[in-house]
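Budget justification aside, the reviewers requested a transparent look at the raw inputs and outputs of the sequence design task funded under Objective 1. We therefore reproduce one unedited record. The lines immediately below are the structure tokens for a 396-residue chain.
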């Protein structure tokens, strides 16, 4: 038997005992499994039927009935007027930022605690992130940090916002609903509106999460979703842009389908476009998964409630949805007392076959974004040093 005691010796026996109890509890939530994954997909509905149907139809690529159905389902779920299905969440971010008006040399306000796709998409347009801190309750962009940036470093000229220290234009704000917890998005939208900055919401992790009874991703000018294999529902790879703006919705579809003008046989493209359309095969999988979204979210929320009850009397804090919000609890997140405990916890749980993960390396600490402008980031740095994600798959 391998010892599961961590090599880090600065941890008290009391903490180690507490970690053992956590491992036992997680194993009781997910019984009869070898290694317990962080988040695995569940194909318990019409997945096989729809995918085989797509194959039988011969429409497996970017034209087919499931693509339209996928979009309609997302309109219905989010309440957005337009939904455009793309190959993944990263391409959705790329196009949403482009449509919001982000250009070469601009700055885009975002948070340092996010998946790298958020900042990569900004870079694809030749722009750079401008980092503001997160809030410790919901782990997304903090309205007070954004307010401080606007007060101290933003100037509005001719209906556009500029970053005073660098003179660069700020063409968008891109908050992210971290691990499915809604940020105070109405506050962020209002702050940005006061200085003509359009908001694009990275709702990749928050499908099924609502703020004040409105679906995340629908507060800004545009919002984006991801259907990657580790998300709440998956279609292998896929993304969605939502918007209530008709012109933007039509343009999103146009430029993601190579900007080809509709014609039965002629090839006429009126600008440089992208081949970003979601294939019918993936859309078929998406439709089957979306039929189960409500049940999945209920199931995940029940698991989160079990975790909350368990962690209540411990030294660890489970991140919970805030007033006015309804979270999908995509990944349950635990705050440990400090980095030494976090490292020991990661080592012990993973060795015991319970997958846990630290949060992403903060974006301003990655080589390609380390020189990007930023405000003070104490909350991001504190949370990144002691947060871990724990198993959160839908339970059977
Ligand atoms: C998953 C994710 C994306 C998009 O990912 P894809 O793999 O391209 O679908 C974007 N932003 C965040 C925060 C994500 O978690």
């Amino acid at each position: 038997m391998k010892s599961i005691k961590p090599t880090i010796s600065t941890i008290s026996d009391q903490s180690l005992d507490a970690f053992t109890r956590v491992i036992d509890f997680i194993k009781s939530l997910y019984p009869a499994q070898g290694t317990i994954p962080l988040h695995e997909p569940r194909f318990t509905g019409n997945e096989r039927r729809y995918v085989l149907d797509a194959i039988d139809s011969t429409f497996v690529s970017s034209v087919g009935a499931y693509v339209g159905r996928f979009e309609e389902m997302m309109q219905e779920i989010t309440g957005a007027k337009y939904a455009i299905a793309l190959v993944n969440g990263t391409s959705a971010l790329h196009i949403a930022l482009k449509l919001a008006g982000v250009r070469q040399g601009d700055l885009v306000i975002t948070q340092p605690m996010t998946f790298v796709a958020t900042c990569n998409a900004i870079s694809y347009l030749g722009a750079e992130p401008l980092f503001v801190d997160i809030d410790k309750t919901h782990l997304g962009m903090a309205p007070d940090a954004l307010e401080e940036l606007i007060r101290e470093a933003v100037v509005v000229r001719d209906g556009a916002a500029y970053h005073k220290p660098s003179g660069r234009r700020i063409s968008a704000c891109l908050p992210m609903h971290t691990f499915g917890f809604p940020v105070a998005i109405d506050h962020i939208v209002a702050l940005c509106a006061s200085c003509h900055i359009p908001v694009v919401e990275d709702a990749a992790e928050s499908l099924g999460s609502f703020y004040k009874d409105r679906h995340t991703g629908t507060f800004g000018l545009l919002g984006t979703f991801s259907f990657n294999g580790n998300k709440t529902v998956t279609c292998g790879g896929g993304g969605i842009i939502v918007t209530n703006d008709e012109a933007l919705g039509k343009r999103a579809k146009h430029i993601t389908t190579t900007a080809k003008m509709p014609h039965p046989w002629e090839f006429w493209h009126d600008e440089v476009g992208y081949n970003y359309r979601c294939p019918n095969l993936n859309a078929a999988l998406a439709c089957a998964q979306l039929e189960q979204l409500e049940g999945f979210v209920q199931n995940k929320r029940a698991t989160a409630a079990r975790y909350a009850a368990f962690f209540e009397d411990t030294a660890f804090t489970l991140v919970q949805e805030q007033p006015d919000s309804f979270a999908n609890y995509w990944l349950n997140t635990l705050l440990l007392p400090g980095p030494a405990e976090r490292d020991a916890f990661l080592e012990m749980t993973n060795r015991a076959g319970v997958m846990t993960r630290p949060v992403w390396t903060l974006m301003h600490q990655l080589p390609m974004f380390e020189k990007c402008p930023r405000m003070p980031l104490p909350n991001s740095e504190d949370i990144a040093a002691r947060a871990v994600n724990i198993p959160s798959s839908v339970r059977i």
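The chain is about 35% helix and 15% strand. The mean pLDDT is 96. Computational costs for records of this kind are itemized in the attached budget.
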